[in-house]
Amino acid sequence: MYVVTIDVEKCQGCGECADNCPASILEVVDGKAQMTGDPADCLGCETCVASCEHDAITVSES
Ligand code: SF4
Ligand code: SF4
Questions:
Q1: How confident is the model at residue 3 (pLDDT cuts 50, 70, 90)?
Q2: For residue 51, how many other CB atoms are within 10 A of its CB?
Q3: Domains and CATH numbers, the chain
Q4: Each residue of 18-54: pLDDT tens digit?
Q5: Phi/psi at 12 (nearest 5 deg)?
Q6: Cα–Cα distance, 62 to 57 (Å, whole number)
Q7: Looking at residue 58, what is its pLDDT?
Q8: How far, in Å, is the centroid of ligand 2 from the Cα of 23?
Q9: pLDDT for residue 62 is more than 90
Q10: Is the CB of 47 under 6 A from ligand 1?
Q11: Could you give the CA distance from residue 62 to residue 55 in angstroms, rounded to a whole number?
Q12: Which of 10, 27, 39, 44 could form a disulfide bond with 56, CB atoms 3.0-4.6 angstroms apart?
């Protein structure tokens, strides 16, 4: 299982991570990215990490 961590201090709410996530589990809520889908659906692809110009996302494996 993958753990996606969003640093709300760094997140600018641009939505790039949500737009590019192939599992469609990320969404911008109140100006900050959040995982609104099932965390178990995360593919661990790190597309969200690559999409974020603000280094606000990290993906780790638990
Ligand atoms: S790409 Fe980065 S800055 Fe943009 S919404 Fe996602 S986490 Fe926030
Ligand atoms: S690692 Fe891939 S599947 Fe998981 S949240 Fe990021 S973009 Fe989506």
A1: very high
A2: 17
A3: 2-61 (3.30.70.20)
A4: 999 999 999 999 999 999 999 999 999 999 999 999 9
A5: -105, 0
A6: 16
A7: 98
A8: 7
A9: no
A10: no
A11: 20
A12: 10
Tokens representing 26 are: 């990320």
Ligand 2 centroid – CA 43 distance (Å): 6
Amino acid at residue number 26? L
- Tokens 């640093």, residue located: 7
Q: The tokens of 52 are what?
A: 């974020």
pLDDT (tens digit per residue) in 52-61 = 999 999 999 9
Q: Does this model's pTM top 0.85?
A: yes
62 class by beta-carbon count within 10 Å (0-12 exposed, 13-18 middle, 19+ buried): exposed
Q: Phi and psi for 10 in degrees, rounded to 5? A: -85, -30
Give me 17's structure tokens.
């991570």
